[in-house]
Amino acid sequence: MQAREQAPEIQPVLDQLRERFGDRFSTAPSVLERHGQDESYHTPMPPDGVVFAESTEEVAEVVRLCAAHRIPVIPFGTGTSLEGHIGALSGGISIDLSQMNRILEVNAEDLDCRVQAGVTRKQLNTHLRDQGLFFPIDPGADASIGGMAATRASGTNAVRYGTMRENVLSLTVVTASGEIIRTAQRARKSSAGYDLTRLFVGSEGTLGVITEVALKLYGIPEATSAAVCQFGDLESAISTVILTIQSGIPMARIELLNDSQMEACIRFSGLEGYEKKPTLFFEFHGSESGVKEQAEAVEAIAGEFVGSAFQWAEKAEDRNKLWEARHNVHYAIKSMRPDCEVMATDICVPISRLAEAILEAEKDLAATGLKAGIVGHVGDGNFHVGYCINPKSKQEVEAAKGHNERMVMRAIAAGGTCTGEHGVGQGKIRYMEAEHGPALAAMKAIKQALDPQNIMNPGKILPA
Amino acid sequence: MQAREQAPEIQPVLDQLRERFGDRFSTAPSVLERHGQDESYHTPMPPDGVVFAESTEEVAEVVRLCAAHRIPVIPFGTGTSLEGHIGALSGGISIDLSQMNRILEVNAEDLDCRVQAGVTRKQLNTHLRDQGLFFPIDPGADASIGGMAATRASGTNAVRYGTMRENVLSLTVVTASGEIIRTAQRARKSSAGYDLTRLFVGSEGTLGVITEVALKLYGIPEATSAAVCQFGDLESAISTVILTIQSGIPMARIELLNDSQMEACIRFSGLEGYEKKPTLFFEFHGSESGVKEQAEAVEAIAGEFVGSAFQWAEKAEDRNKLWEARHNVHYAIKSMRPDCEVMATDICVPISRLAEAILEAEKDLAATGLKAGIVGHVGDGNFHVGYCINPKSKQEVEAAKGHNERMVMRAIAAGGTCTGEHGVGQGKIRYMEAEHGPALAAMKAIKQALDPQNIMNPGKILPA
């Protein structure tokens, strides 16, 4: 834990919060530590106190108190972010929303719902299953819906269902002055003014605290099937993806694992019958005949690039095993070496530039000698490198950072972005200027307008 | 034309623009008049001068000049807006973008393109056809892509393809200070900072001038078919829509015309073989078998609500006739009476509230004695009333405004919005407080931050 001096003016805030929230306020070192550390390699930066809020009104109360004393406010969901989003860089109060975990309404007729920010995606889907509905956005971790909105999360299903950008209908937000606003009504579309919903989606707590989220839902498809196809080389796998997307086949999931990632997954997740080769995982949603038709079309495309015969996972348990393996890539990489921690990064490029982006990343990896896995939501042009590094080895950390930086700069040069879905947090701030240029001034003006005291999760997204 | 005093400080701006742009600058009364009047009932408010810009740099030059003299800037595309968006309420310079009509790039591999703001949607689709691609957003009018982005337009295809919100990848914008920014890179998704693209989409020229637009494209579907189904009553037609949407059938278009609208269309567009009854127009996109499957599923649903047998429009020319009739509803209403002008309005509600919203609108119409047609993008919960009024009859204008207001307030109470796709302009400003409540303050703060002099299309979207 890094030392940071506690601002002298915080004591009265801590005292008032303790009096107001009793045992739902904590300054216990273990609690502070847990709230200053996400799942990333960034240095833990614990807050000065943590409030476990139970309602939007309580969040507003805390923000108003912090605003009156110019004390930073850092929203906390499940702590599964990957770019140091929750570190209390200037101290302050962490508002833990995990106890705000009520599903407020499910409107099956309208295919929408409204949940408190602390509801996790698995909790929501368990709740929805009996009604034949589901919420498709799946970033891997069982993140909170509020956190997913705040980082504009996506994941494996985004190629078909979109990201949080497309699937949030409206938000309840506590602003930097402690006002409660709702960003939009419940209608599917609107032209009534500025799109505040989309502004807060992806704002990473820097403009306000998201306390409730209204989401689009989908009917569980009549038929679902999944398949695996292995390729002789990465280019063939990626060409299969590109042609599939261009053909307009409505894939639900199309995921790439490179050979080293596949090797780690075979070992870690006990995937039997597969080789250490570039591999695509497919999932098809639709009617019985629609799924069959999609699968045949994709198998034909893969055949053109000498992909293996599809290995089908027809049963739900086989599919679950496949996607569990996919979700566990992080742990599979971790198991590559005993002293390994995973440093994860993500970029996203136009799909026509995907093959060169991944191939250059692989070539550069070979030159650094780092161990790493590459997995991608390739239908979106988005992929991740998971570096297996010893965090105590300065040389390894620097090598990974250097590789990441070169990959990001190539992505930006190719019309892509420094982060497809993980967000900026602390980790990608240094690339914001390169990616956005003069548009960054507009972002800073918005931040200044909505959080003039810079108390909302300061030090994230925008360079000083 | 309403009298308005010319601000004294504008003369030097007019002189400089004339010197700089020669015959691409005009103060001719006919030109001014055309640029102060859209297709709505709002009082024409001509600007003081019109610049026909040919590049983003020229737009930036004009905005910088206006900013230096605090003169309003009003962007102009094709003038097809419906809520008085282009009226120069405080005078100023209209920037006509219609000569910025170049298609800058089409990236077929990435299913995207970049166009200048003055390109119209029909121009784009004509250009794309040979490559097997299309851009689906279709607001009826052959609007400019820049104008469609500025009003967050949608139309008949939105139920499947989304609105401009979902289909703009990035924008080039001239800010209120005359800086040129690009709101995003070309990647399909990104978590790199605030979503400036979505902020400018729907901002109606009040935050900056959109000069270039990057768009998602789609492959022309393998198969397309359209059908018409008529119902004994409105409720049965809407119930068919609701059940179709809930069943997850990926309709490309699902449009409702009420009986009076259908009567007008039969007469105006020579639609033969149809009755004056509540009617649904359907369009299906997909593979041959997919389209067949969708159509059978929808026909079965319609049968449950005693809809007529589907009348199919298999051939492209028959489909075109159908959709031309749909697009010409405006003129069909106009033809209801010789002295008629159409006052169009739109609201959007959660689909579960659609039946009551339309039925109440019809009942209220009957009470006012107004002639009107109702058409709806009902898959989105969005519908329009086109009032056939004599604009010189104060009583008729007031009756239509009163009906509109009651309908809007019912929509807001039902969780809907005062405008699904036409935008706020001048016409819906009065409902912004009712719809957004305290969130309006956040919109105003953003406006103040990005346009501190209030020169960008002043008097639109936000109440004073």
UniProtKB/TrEMBL annotation, chains A, B:
Cofactor: FAD
Domain FAD-binding PCMH-type residue range list: 43-220
GO molecular-function term, one example from the UniProt record: D-lactate dehydrogenase (cytochrome) activity
Group of enzyme by EC: oxidoreductase
UniProt-listed Enzyme Commission number(s): 1.1.2.4
Cited InterPro entries: FAD-bd_oxidored_4_C (IPR004113), FAD-bd_PCMH (IPR016166), FAD-bd_PCMH-like_sf (IPR036318), FAD-bd_PCMH_sub2 (IPR016169), FAD-linked_Oxase-like_C (IPR016164), Oxid_FAD_bind_N (IPR006094), Vanillyl_alc_oxidase_C-sub2 (IPR016171)
SUPFAM superfamilies: FAD-binding/transporter-associated domain-like (SSF56176), FAD-linked oxidases, C-terminal domain (SSF55103)
Record keywords, A-Z: FAD, Flavoprotein, Oxidoreductase, Transit peptide
One biological process term in Gene Ontology: lactate catabolic process
Family note: Belongs to the FAD-binding oxidoreductase/transferase type 4 family.
UniProt protein name: D-lactate dehydrogenase (cytochrome)
Organism the protein comes from: Nisaea acidiphila
